[in-house]
Amino acid sequence: MTLLWQIKQRIKNNPHARVLIEERKRRRYTRYVKQYSDREFIERFYEQKVGRKPDLDDPKTFTEKLQWLKLNYRDPDIPRASDKYEAKQYIAERGFPELLIPTLAVYHNADEIDLSKLPDKFILKATHGSGWNFICRDKASFDLPARRKIMNAWLKQNLYIYGREWNYKEQTPRLIAEPLMDDKPLVDYKFLCFNGVCRALTVNHDDNGTHYIDFYDSDWNLIPEMKADIADHSCKPLPKPERFDEMKAIAEKLAAPFPFVRVDLYDIRGEIYFGEMTFFPGSGFWHITPETYDETFGAWLTLPESSR
Which of 11, 152, 162, 279 is 20 to 30 A from 26, comparing alpha carbons? Predict the structure, then answer.
């Protein structure tokens, strides 16, 4: 368990610190929206995060091509598919209603949450962001008043300002409640699909209190040397899920209409469930090492014609 992880957990568990940090961040990036155009912001932030200037006119690497898609490609299904509530209808329309985790309630304000109407174990999620959620394993000890402040801080935010992902501008901030599907931290299988074909995946999992994200190729071979500065890497291969091939096929069917999308799925006691669809992982600001993988991933992605 690293010191950095411990510090992050302390902040995460302190509602006053979290609200203050969220509000300061929101105000700072709101100023940036007025100060920089989308292209200017992306150029500056990409160089800061990735360590080199992006070529946005003739992109070659994966991270450059994601920035190009932000600026030049619009598909009306992307805002809906990346909204954690609207995506459920989208998934059902694509023929996979059995993958959906039920929605227990939808809220436009955290003050609307009534614990008496929720089961003993549940999860609360913001529909318009990433990592904005609270897990309740025991309703009797769940401190809702403190968490309401944090959730209402989420609802003030539009994720667009932090990475210029245009799809978030068109979403309605909401909270949803879902049943907690498992008491243990879930393994999150994130299929990276390029022009409808899964070429690789990241696997998010916990081990002894540490959260890891590892890269695998599409045949479930661990890529231990690949890093993207998004979390610690365990560099230990996990058992291949029994329904891995079926999960990959589902991800490819859901990804088929898009140039690139990451499709997240869970395998819970042998049943496959949908997590979310992400069109710009890390907002496309991954610092991928070795850089050859950024180039390889980029070669897999054929960009569409500009729709702007």
Answer: 279
